[in-house]
Task: inverse folding
């Protein structure tokens, strides 16, 4: 029993890392652009398909696929920000409702484009990232999942360091906090929006390439990840980057542990239930501030 | 010679004009004051000059170059600095980071460090508090931070929206001493102010605005002598 619990916690931490990365990147985009990006999961889907296509032509290997997904989705993010978000920007701010509706349209467009190109089949990257299995006493950890955990944490840490210690990161934080003042400092808000959207999208894309060796890629996969990203963000606190990380792990672990108590198939209820609890008892999120910024 | 010249500006929010053909000029190296009752369009004028609002018609020229449609951040690059009434800073960044953001356009590290040292010499309290979040500063310290931040680009023109707002008389004097000193060193200043007495005392030229149009302009002494101030603020008859 105890071993089961430890095992499920370990499993939960690994799924949680992906939720954390998704929540983190969604939060970054929301915090700076103030756009609720419904197409966030589709960025993950594009990353997953990048890995599938590269594996199909036997190019590189799984690690190169992750890099390729990061690059490709960065580019896609830049194009979306330039062509679709820029026209919705009035006086340095993106129109919130229009931005959200645009991202809904984008989500449908991207999933259907992939459906037209690749068909509805489940696709999988053959082979493993790492085939080793680590045994610590009776605890068995697949190397594959450890790589996912490490990869997600690496990307999240890289983002944190970038935001904390670079001038561009400082400019991104500045635009998120006060776009008018950022402009008065000579910062181009549209360019920061483009860069931020591209980074946020790329992290989701990287997550997609990271998980395809353990899960399937299919055209409609994005939406459920969008939902997980939103649940993570709501539990952790909208706009709060550390909150998303904490909530991601919490969600992953809770979902994984629920298998012990709940009947099979009911673990999908855990996320929405936690989100509802958060909304009722802690609407500002775990680490969110009570004050709601305009 | 006018460093900044706005001619026949018509501008406002969402189709309704607040400025109705307003014209002003800020002479190089001088302090130009803008006064007028609430709703005269002073802040709207400054936002239009800074490019936050695009005018429906009229032109803005800086140093004889037309900048009417230039985005805000490009105007900073031209040598204009803007100190907003409130919230011109980043409360959850440190004092040091706020100053670093002020020098966003300054690529040369030694120039940045030199200017920051200058700001710290001018406002020693900022140096003491450089690792604190700007949101924890007092009103007076914030005004110092915003002036310091604006100085990081070594601007030729500083546009200020009510630098005295929320400050004690002593701090207002302190702020205006600094502004006067900057003007003495050749920086052009354009100041909107509710504290009319203070502004008249420091300005070389004053524009009185009313309902988004020019009402009067000239030397502040003349404005006082002719008794036009009361008319402007009390709305009695034609000035």
Result:
């Amino acid at each position: 029993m105890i071993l089961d619990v430890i095992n499920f916690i370990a499993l939960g931490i690994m799924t949680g890392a992906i939720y954390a990365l998704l929540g983190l990147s969604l939060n970054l985009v929301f915090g700076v652009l103030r756009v609720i990006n419904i197409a966030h999961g589709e960025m993950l889907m594009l990353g997953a398909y990048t890995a599938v296509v590269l594996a199909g032509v036997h190019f590189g290997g799984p690690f190169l696929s992750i890099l390729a997904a990061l690059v490709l989705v960065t580019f896609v993010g830049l194009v979306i920000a330039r062509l679709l978000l820029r026209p919705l920007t009035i006086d340095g701010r993106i129109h919130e409702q229009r931005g959200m509706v645009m991202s809904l349209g984008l989500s449908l467009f991207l999933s259907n484009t992939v459906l037209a190109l690749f068909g509805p089949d489940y696709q999988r990257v053959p082979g493993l990232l790492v085939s080793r299995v680590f045994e610590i006493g009776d605890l068995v950890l697949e190397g594959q999942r450890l790589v996912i955990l490490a990869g997600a944490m690496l990307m999240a840490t890289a983002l944190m360091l970038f935001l904390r210690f670079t001038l561009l990161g400082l400019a991104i934080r500045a635009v998120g906090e006060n776009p008018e003042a950022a402009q008065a400092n000579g910062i181009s808000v549209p360019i920061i929006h483009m860069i931020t959207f591209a980074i946020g999208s790329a992290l989701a894309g990287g997550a997609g390439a990271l998980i395809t060796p353990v899960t399937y890629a299919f055209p409609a996969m994005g939406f459920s990840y969008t939902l997980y990203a939103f649940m993570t963000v709501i539990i952790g606190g909208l706009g709060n980057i550390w909150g998303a990380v904490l909530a991601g792990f919490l969600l992953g672990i809770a979902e994984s542990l629920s298998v012990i108590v709940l009947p099979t198939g009911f673990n999908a209820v855990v996320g929405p239930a936690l989100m509802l609890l958060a909304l009722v008892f802690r609407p500002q999120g775990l680490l969110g501030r009570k004050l709601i910024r305009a | 010679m006018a460093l900044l010249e706005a001619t026949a500006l018509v501008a406002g929010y969402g189709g309704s004009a607040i400025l109705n053909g307003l014209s002003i000029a800020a002479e190089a190296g001088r302090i130009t004051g803008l006064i007028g009752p609430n709703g005269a369009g002073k802040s709207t004028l400054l936002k239009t000059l800074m490019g936050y609002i695009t005018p429906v018609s009229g032109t803005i020229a800086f140093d004889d170059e037309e900048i009417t449609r230039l985005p805000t951040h490009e105007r900073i690059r031209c040598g204009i600095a803007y100190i907003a009434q409130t919230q011109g800073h980043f409360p959850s960044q440190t004092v040091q980071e706020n100053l670093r953001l002020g020098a966003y356009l300054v690529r040369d590290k030694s120039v940045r460090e030199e200017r920051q040292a200058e700001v710290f010499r001018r406002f020693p309290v900022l140096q003491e508090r450089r690792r604190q979040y700007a949101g924890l500063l007092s009103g007076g310290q914030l005004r110092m931070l915003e002036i310091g931040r604006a100085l990081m680009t070594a601007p030729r023109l500083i546009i200020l929206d009510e630098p005295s707002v929320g400050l004690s008389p002593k701090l207002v004097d302190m702020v205006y001493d600094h502004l006067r000193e900057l003007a003495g060193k050749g920086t052009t200043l354009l100041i909107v102010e509710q504290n009319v007495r203070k502004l008249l005392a420091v300005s070389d030229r004053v524009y009185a605005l009313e309902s988004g149009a020019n009402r009067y302009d000239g030397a502040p002494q003349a404005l006082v002598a002719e008794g036009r101030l009361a008319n402007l603020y009390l709305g009695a008859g034609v000035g």
Notes: Chain B has two domains: 1-79+155-232, 86-154. Residues 31 and 203 of chain B are 5 Å apart (CA to CA). Chain B has a mean pLDDT of 90.
